[in-house]
Fold this protein.
Amino acid sequence: MNTFHLQPAGLTSPAGTDTVHRVGLSQSVEDVLDMFRAGLTRVDGRKVARAALAPLACTWPAVRLVAVGKAALAMTQGALAILGDRVRAGLVVTKAGHGGSLPPGVPIRILEAGHPLPDATSLQAGAALLDFLAADPARTEEERGLFLLSGGASALVEALPDRVTLEDLRRVNGWLLGSGLDIHQMNRIRKRLSRIKGGRLAAHLAGRSATVLLLSDVPGDNPASIGSGPLLPELDTPLPEGLPTWLRELLDRVPPPPVPGDPMFARIDTRLIGSVGDALRAAGLRARCRGWHVRLAAGTLSGDAATQGAAVAAALLQGAPGVYLWGGETTVVLPPNPGRGGRNQHLALAAAQVIQGREDVIILAAGSDGSDADSPWAGAVVDGKTIARGQAAGHDPVQALARADAQAFLAASGGLLATGPTGTNVMDLVIGLKMALGR
């Protein structure tokens, strides 16, 4: 995993992830970064795939591998460490910049596709996936399908129903990303507009056995929501209320997905191998090893990012000294012509307003995958001086939040966090540290 880079005030783009920028960093900031790193290490795609397959795959003579998501390459590397040359063929689809290489001679094709908005490469990846499954020459009882799924799969791989175009798909996903809907609601819509999602991919297995290993990036860790559930049936869940007329009309064009109990799902074994809960527990353990008292928030962080940022900050101000941990995924309703900065930067800036002037509080908010919406940053670290530094550079935090332009403020004030692709994706982590003054 790359070493983290914490951006100093006035830097507007990542300076690389080779070293931690240590100038001016207190030991407490180092502690918070180390907790975050420990959390990500626990759910690293290589590690969790390797651990899951070691006892599971010992009797598999031959495997055809499919990996889709931001952690796809890392999970594939973990699988190869166990399976070796038993992998007869494979296909990996991941986000641009999250790819890489595998050892020479490994019969696995790597594709990069569009994210967070699907594009033509997403459709090409979807066609490649269906061709890969159809081209299986063996179709024997001994050969097993192995699917490694992580967050991002919904945008990365797609095959569209008749009468739905790429332009339609991009319009839907663009609307969803700024709608304020949670991930479950968004995925219900995505599943309807697909020939792959909502369990539809299972039909292409033609009854063959398959194991599905999942890194969860959804609240509640529902396997049918991870990657929009390509190999699991959709429950009879209603669509969100208040959808625009054009979207309702689009959804009415496509047939419903398969239902639970369909025989196509009988030979599919699904296993969850990593979640934000695992990451938070590992971060908490590292905090305790550093001498901090730890409080893990109940439930999942969700809802409006600015509201939750203020609530996180208030909890720290009202609580006793120690480390406070939250995991989940907030939302931002985008205004017309929004600026830059994802939900974690938005949350961090809102929190910074509440803790301004304090010398005893530090807050980290970052995506576990190393990205934050379309930003090159994973998130940010803020403290009691963040607001003053940004204002001194001529920026207004209230206006920055109203414009969904947290990145500009945080670039001026310092504290944007770059990790590069992390090899995992389990939603977002928020770590708050409250110090006893004089510590």
